[in-house]
Amino acid sequence: MKKSILIAALIALTAALPATVKAENCAEASAETSIQQAEIKISTRNQTIRVQNAQGETVRVYNLTGVEIHKEYIDSSDKELNVKLSAGCYIVKIGDTARKVTIR
Length: 104
Known about the structure:
By secondary structure, the protein is an alpha+beta fold.
C-alpha cells in the first residue's frame, strides 16, 4: 500500500515538473524580448516630428479633440516627418506608445 502511494506521488510530481520548467523558460524569453526592444523616442523641432526606434510601425498624429490629422508608415529606425501643423499641442501615437507634443 505504501509503495503504491509513493509511486503515485512520484508520477504526479514528474508530470507536473515539465510544465513548471516550461513556464519559467517562457518568462525568461519574454524578459529577453522586452530588453532587446528599444524604447520609441518622439521629439519635435519646428514643424518636424522625429521618431526613433519604431521601424515597421505606423505613426498617427491627433489634435487635442481626437481627430486624426496625419498618418504615415515608419520605414526606418530614425525618421523625420515634415508635417504641416499650426502651433499647438498634438498627440503622437505609435503602436501602444502615445506622447503629447508641442509645435511652436
